[in-house]
User: Fold Large ribosomal subunit protein uL1 from Sulfitobacter porphyrae.
Amino acid sequence: MAKLGKRTAAAREAFVGKEDVTVEEAVALIKSNSKVKFDETMEIALNLGVDPRHADQMVRGVVGLPNGTGKTMRVAVFARGPKAEEAQAAGADIVGAEDLMETVQSGKIEFDRCIATPDMMPIVGRLGKVLGPRNLMPNPKVGTVTMDIKEAVEAAKGGQVQFKAEKGGVVHAGVGKLSFDEAKLAENIRAFVGAVAKAKPTGSKGTYMKKINLSSTMGPGISVAVDDAMTGQA
Assistant:
Protein backbone atom coordinates (compact mmCIF):
# COMPACT_ATOMS: atom_id res chain seq x y z
CA MET A 1 0.00 0.00 0.00
CA ALA A 2 1.36 3.40 -1.01
CA LYS A 3 2.42 5.67 1.83
CA LEU A 4 0.31 8.80 2.21
CA GLY A 5 1.97 12.19 1.90
CA LYS A 6 1.93 14.53 4.89
CA ARG A 7 -0.68 16.82 3.31
CA THR A 8 -3.03 13.95 2.43
CA ALA A 9 -2.60 12.30 5.82
CA ALA A 10 -3.33 15.56 7.63
CA ALA A 11 -6.45 16.17 5.54
CA ARG A 12 -7.78 12.69 6.21
CA GLU A 13 -7.09 13.08 9.93
CA ALA A 14 -9.23 16.23 9.99
CA PHE A 15 -12.13 14.27 8.51
CA VAL A 16 -11.97 11.33 10.95
CA GLY A 17 -15.18 10.80 12.91
CA LYS A 18 -17.17 13.24 10.80
CA GLU A 19 -20.01 11.61 8.89
CA ASP A 20 -23.44 12.74 7.71
CA VAL A 21 -22.70 16.35 8.54
CA THR A 22 -24.63 19.35 7.25
CA VAL A 23 -23.82 20.84 3.85
CA GLU A 24 -22.39 23.94 5.52
CA GLU A 25 -20.18 21.90 7.87
CA ALA A 26 -18.85 19.83 4.97
CA VAL A 27 -18.12 22.90 2.85
CA ALA A 28 -16.28 24.64 5.70
CA LEU A 29 -14.22 21.54 6.46
CA ILE A 30 -13.26 20.96 2.84
CA LYS A 31 -12.33 24.61 2.27
CA SER A 32 -10.22 24.81 5.44
CA ASN A 33 -8.27 21.67 4.56
CA SER A 34 -7.40 22.57 0.99
CA LYS A 35 -3.62 23.01 0.87
CA VAL A 36 -2.90 22.89 -2.88
CA LYS A 37 -1.82 25.87 -4.96
CA PHE A 38 -4.72 25.89 -7.40
CA ASP A 39 -8.43 26.58 -7.11
CA GLU A 40 -9.92 23.15 -6.54
CA THR A 41 -13.39 22.12 -7.68
CA MET A 42 -16.04 21.15 -5.15
CA GLU A 43 -17.20 17.74 -6.31
CA ILE A 44 -20.38 15.91 -5.38
CA ALA A 45 -21.19 12.23 -5.73
CA LEU A 46 -24.66 10.85 -5.11
CA ASN A 47 -25.20 7.14 -4.62
CA LEU A 48 -28.70 6.39 -5.90
CA GLY A 49 -30.91 3.35 -5.51
CA VAL A 50 -31.19 2.75 -9.25
CA ASP A 51 -29.74 0.43 -11.86
CA PRO A 52 -29.10 2.57 -14.96
CA ARG A 53 -28.87 -0.55 -17.11
CA HIS A 54 -32.68 -0.52 -17.06
CA ALA A 55 -34.33 2.22 -19.12
CA ASP A 56 -36.95 2.96 -16.46
CA GLN A 57 -34.23 3.53 -13.86
CA MET A 58 -32.00 5.89 -15.84
CA VAL A 59 -31.37 9.23 -14.16
CA ARG A 60 -30.30 12.16 -16.28
CA GLY A 61 -31.00 15.83 -16.45
CA VAL A 62 -29.64 19.33 -16.33
CA VAL A 63 -29.52 22.05 -13.70
CA GLY A 64 -28.51 25.69 -13.77
CA LEU A 65 -26.37 26.29 -10.70
CA PRO A 66 -27.40 29.62 -9.11
CA ASN A 67 -23.78 30.70 -8.68
CA GLY A 68 -22.25 29.06 -11.74
CA THR A 69 -19.48 26.47 -11.80
CA GLY A 70 -16.46 28.76 -11.85
CA LYS A 71 -15.27 26.84 -14.88
CA THR A 72 -14.86 28.22 -18.38
CA MET A 73 -17.12 26.03 -20.50
CA ARG A 74 -15.98 25.38 -24.06
CA VAL A 75 -19.03 24.89 -26.29
CA ALA A 76 -19.19 23.26 -29.72
CA VAL A 77 -22.25 23.65 -31.94
CA PHE A 78 -23.25 21.63 -34.98
CA ALA A 79 -25.27 23.99 -37.16
CA ARG A 80 -25.46 25.59 -40.60
CA GLY A 81 -26.44 28.96 -42.00
CA PRO A 82 -28.32 31.37 -39.73
CA LYS A 83 -28.17 28.93 -36.80
CA ALA A 84 -24.39 28.74 -37.12
CA GLU A 85 -24.27 32.53 -37.07
CA GLU A 86 -26.57 32.51 -34.01
CA ALA A 87 -24.19 30.14 -32.25
CA GLN A 88 -21.19 32.33 -32.96
CA ALA A 89 -23.01 35.45 -31.80
CA ALA A 90 -24.00 33.67 -28.56
CA GLY A 91 -20.36 32.87 -27.78
CA ALA A 92 -19.90 29.30 -28.99
CA ASP A 93 -16.22 28.34 -29.17
CA ILE A 94 -16.48 25.98 -32.15
CA VAL A 95 -19.16 25.95 -34.86
CA GLY A 96 -19.36 23.64 -37.85
CA ALA A 97 -21.02 20.76 -39.65
CA GLU A 98 -19.17 18.10 -41.67
CA ASP A 99 -15.89 19.86 -40.97
CA LEU A 100 -16.52 19.66 -37.21
CA MET A 101 -17.50 15.99 -37.56
CA GLU A 102 -14.16 15.27 -39.24
CA THR A 103 -12.30 17.14 -36.49
CA VAL A 104 -14.00 15.05 -33.80
CA GLN A 105 -13.40 11.83 -35.73
CA SER A 106 -9.69 12.66 -35.81
CA GLY A 107 -9.70 12.61 -32.01
CA LYS A 108 -9.49 16.36 -31.52
CA ILE A 109 -12.17 17.18 -28.94
CA GLU A 110 -11.58 20.63 -27.53
CA PHE A 111 -14.96 21.29 -25.95
CA ASP A 112 -16.92 20.49 -22.79
CA ARG A 113 -20.47 20.72 -24.15
CA CYS A 114 -21.84 19.77 -27.57
CA ILE A 115 -25.04 21.29 -28.96
CA ALA A 116 -26.76 20.56 -32.27
CA THR A 117 -29.77 21.63 -34.30
CA PRO A 118 -32.13 18.71 -35.07
CA ASP A 119 -31.19 18.64 -38.77
CA MET A 120 -27.56 18.02 -37.80
CA MET A 121 -28.27 14.78 -35.92
CA PRO A 122 -27.63 12.47 -38.91
CA ILE A 123 -24.08 13.86 -38.92
CA VAL A 124 -23.68 13.94 -35.15
CA GLY A 125 -25.09 10.41 -34.92
CA ARG A 126 -21.94 9.09 -36.60
CA LEU A 127 -19.95 10.33 -33.62
CA GLY A 128 -21.83 8.32 -31.01
CA LYS A 129 -18.89 6.03 -30.21
CA VAL A 130 -16.64 9.04 -29.70
CA LEU A 131 -18.95 11.48 -27.91
CA GLY A 132 -21.12 8.98 -26.02
CA PRO A 133 -18.46 7.65 -23.60
CA ARG A 134 -17.47 11.25 -22.82
CA ASN A 135 -21.09 12.21 -22.04
CA LEU A 136 -20.91 14.79 -24.85
CA MET A 137 -23.57 13.40 -27.18
CA PRO A 138 -26.30 16.01 -27.84
CA ASN A 139 -29.65 14.94 -26.40
CA PRO A 140 -33.04 16.67 -26.60
CA LYS A 141 -33.83 15.56 -23.02
CA VAL A 142 -31.16 17.89 -21.65
CA GLY A 143 -31.69 20.68 -24.17
CA THR A 144 -28.62 20.12 -26.33
CA VAL A 145 -30.59 19.19 -29.45
CA THR A 146 -32.57 22.35 -30.08
CA MET A 147 -33.41 25.12 -32.50
CA ASP A 148 -32.93 27.69 -29.74
CA ILE A 149 -29.16 27.72 -30.11
CA LYS A 150 -28.71 31.10 -28.42
CA GLU A 151 -30.40 29.95 -25.21
CA ALA A 152 -28.54 26.62 -25.18
CA VAL A 153 -25.13 28.22 -25.63
CA GLU A 154 -25.78 30.92 -23.04
CA ALA A 155 -27.05 28.33 -20.54
CA ALA A 156 -23.94 26.19 -21.02
CA LYS A 157 -21.69 29.22 -20.60
CA GLY A 158 -23.66 30.43 -17.58
CA GLY A 159 -23.13 27.49 -15.25
CA GLN A 160 -25.54 24.82 -16.43
CA VAL A 161 -24.51 21.31 -15.39
CA GLN A 162 -25.63 18.05 -16.97
CA PHE A 163 -25.84 14.89 -14.90
CA LYS A 164 -26.29 11.22 -15.68
CA ALA A 165 -26.28 8.09 -13.53
CA GLU A 166 -23.23 5.99 -14.30
CA LYS A 167 -22.48 2.37 -13.49
CA GLY A 168 -23.59 1.52 -9.97
CA GLY A 169 -26.14 4.33 -9.88
CA VAL A 170 -23.64 7.08 -9.06
CA VAL A 171 -24.14 10.67 -10.23
CA HIS A 172 -21.01 12.83 -10.11
CA ALA A 173 -20.47 16.51 -10.92
CA GLY A 174 -18.50 19.64 -10.11
CA VAL A 175 -20.62 22.23 -8.29
CA GLY A 176 -18.30 25.22 -7.95
CA LYS A 177 -14.80 26.27 -6.96
CA LEU A 178 -13.37 26.30 -3.45
CA SER A 179 -12.73 30.03 -3.87
CA PHE A 180 -16.52 30.55 -3.82
CA ASP A 181 -18.11 31.82 -0.61
CA GLU A 182 -19.32 29.00 1.62
CA ALA A 183 -22.93 30.14 1.25
CA LYS A 184 -22.71 30.11 -2.55
CA LEU A 185 -21.24 26.62 -2.57
CA ALA A 186 -23.97 25.39 -0.24
CA GLU A 187 -26.62 26.96 -2.47
CA ASN A 188 -25.15 25.25 -5.55
CA ILE A 189 -24.98 21.90 -3.76
CA ARG A 190 -28.61 22.05 -2.67
CA ALA A 191 -29.70 23.10 -6.18
CA PHE A 192 -27.89 20.11 -7.67
CA VAL A 193 -29.31 17.66 -5.13
CA GLY A 194 -32.79 19.07 -5.75
CA ALA A 195 -32.48 18.57 -9.50
CA VAL A 196 -31.36 14.96 -9.07
CA ALA A 197 -34.23 14.37 -6.64
CA LYS A 198 -36.75 15.69 -9.18
CA ALA A 199 -35.25 13.40 -11.84
CA LYS A 200 -36.25 10.28 -9.87
CA PRO A 201 -37.25 7.67 -12.46
CA THR A 202 -40.48 5.67 -12.40
CA GLY A 203 -38.59 2.40 -11.96
CA SER A 204 -36.84 3.46 -8.75
CA LYS A 205 -37.95 1.35 -5.80
CA GLY A 206 -37.03 1.70 -2.14
CA THR A 207 -34.60 4.41 -1.06
CA TYR A 208 -33.74 6.63 -4.02
CA MET A 209 -31.04 8.88 -2.59
CA LYS A 210 -28.83 6.64 -0.48
CA LYS A 211 -25.71 8.70 0.17
CA ILE A 212 -24.18 12.07 -0.69
CA ASN A 213 -20.45 12.68 -0.61
CA LEU A 214 -18.56 15.93 -1.04
CA SER A 215 -14.84 16.38 -1.76
CA SER A 216 -12.38 18.72 -3.37
CA THR A 217 -10.36 17.78 -6.45
CA MET A 218 -7.37 16.57 -4.43
CA GLY A 219 -8.92 16.08 -1.01
CA PRO A 220 -10.68 13.27 0.86
CA GLY A 221 -14.45 12.97 0.86
CA ILE A 222 -17.02 13.53 3.59
CA SER A 223 -20.60 12.28 3.71
CA VAL A 224 -23.44 14.76 3.99
CA ALA A 225 -26.78 14.04 5.64
CA VAL A 226 -29.30 13.48 2.85
CA ASP A 227 -32.11 15.15 4.81
CA ASP A 228 -30.00 18.28 5.30
CA ALA A 229 -29.00 18.45 1.63
CA MET A 230 -32.70 18.25 0.74
CA THR A 231 -33.60 21.17 3.04
CA GLY A 232 -35.61 23.78 1.21
CA GLN A 233 -36.45 21.52 -1.72
CA ALA A 234 -40.01 21.44 -2.96
